[in-house]
Structure formats: structure tokens, C-alpha cells
Amino acid sequence: MKAMKNLVHLCILGIWAVAGVLFTLKAAFAFSAFVPVALFWGWFAGFAAFTSWVVAKFDNPLGALATHGAALLVMQAVPAVLPFVLVRLGLDLLAGRALPF
């Protein structure tokens, strides 16, 4: 069961990473986009580390799905004001919203 849990977690993080690569390629032609791209990948590293830590506490694949679903709901519920915007930074950047600071 742990292999399936890890596979589900890896697939979900892979979807985030593909979205990040597309975001990076879209912003590659603008020099001013270096900061948002760097912020996204920093946010993604923290997000991946945090969700990996939470998923490790579960034994089945549903725990990985629930962790990522809950993370997405929390990111949607957090207000877009500092310092809370740091929680939802990657989601906002992928959605095309500007940096709030």
C-alpha cells in the first residue's frame, strides 16, 4: 500500500511540476519574470516538503489524495493579504494573478 500512496503523491506533485514548467516557459521571454518564477519554485519546494511530511503519516493512497485536496481547499480559503498570501503564492502565480507585494 505504501508504494501506491507514494505513486499517487508523486503523480500529484508531477502535475504541479508540469504546471510550473509551463509557467516558467511562458515567463522565459521576459527578464522581469525571473522573480515570480524563482518565487514559484521556492514555494513549490516548500509545498512538496510539507505535503510529503503529511502524506508520510498515512498508510493508504486515500491519505495522499485527501492531503492534496485539503491543501488545495486551504489555499483557496486563505485570504490574499500578507502574510497569508505566501501560503497561496504558487496557486496565484499559476492562475495568472500578479504578486501582491
What layout of secondary structure does this protein have?
Blueprint: H1 2-27, H2 34-55, H3 61-77, H4 89-94
Helix pairs in contact: 1-2, 1-3
What does this structure look like?
- With 101 residues, this protein is an all-alpha fold.
- It has helices spanning 2-27, 34-55, 61-77, 89-94.
- Helix 1 runs antiparallel to helix 2 (34-55).
- The longest helix has 26 residues, at 2-27.
- 14% of the residues are buried.
- The mean pLDDT is 86.
Radius of gyration: 14 Å
Category from helices, strands and their pairing: mainly alpha
Biggest sheet, open or closed, and with what strands and sense? none
Distance between the termini: 43 Å
Q: Element order, helices and strands? A: HHHH
**Total E-strand runs:** 0
Give the proportion of residues in helices: over 70%
> Unreliable stretches, pLDDT < 50, 5 or more residues?
none
Total DSSP helices = 4
Strand content: under 5%
**What is the typical, i.e. mean, pLDDT?**
86
Determine the oligomeric state from the structure.
Answer: single chain
